[in-house]
Amino acid sequence: MKLHAFPFQTLDWCTIAKEEHKGISGTAYWQVFMMNDIRVRLIEYTAGYLADHWCKKGHIIFCTEGEMETELEDGRKFILSKGMSYHVGDDCEAHRSSTKEGCNLFVVD
Asked: How far is CA 44 from CA 8, 12, 13, 65, in A?
């Protein structure tokens, strides 16, 4: 990742509207801020959320609340809970997320 030049700035996430993204079950709410070609998001997964697709985008994900399971297309599964992060590059390993109780994430991609 190259962090191309942008000025120092602060962001009040309360000013960023939430986008609703339905899963196979449950809902993801995204707040998105773009810095050049870098997307920064706060994401809330509701209880019972299951993603509706296999994602091949690279991410750096930090769990700020709750717990989620990430399943890789090859069948491996990983738990991400509060205070943990995961990192995957573009087109490396397709993955999808689910959560029983819900969770909140900080994501850079």
From this structure: 26, 17, 13, 9
User: By C-alpha distance, which of 1, 41, 23 is closest to 96?
Assistant: 23
Structure tokens at 47: 């209880």
Fold of 19-68+82-88+100-109: Jelly Rolls (2.60.120)
Return the bridge partners of 95, or none.
55, 72
Give the count of alpha carbons within 13 A of 4, CB side only: 6
Task: Measure the CA–CA gap between 28 and 18, rounded to whole angstroms.
Answer: 9
**Length of the chain in terms of residues written:** 109
User: DSSP code of 90?
Assistant: T
Using one digit for the tens of pLDDT, what is the confidence trace for 20-76?
Answer: 999 999 999 999 999 888 999 999 999 999 999 999 999 999 999 999 999 999 999
Domain ranges of the chain: 19-68+82-88+100-109
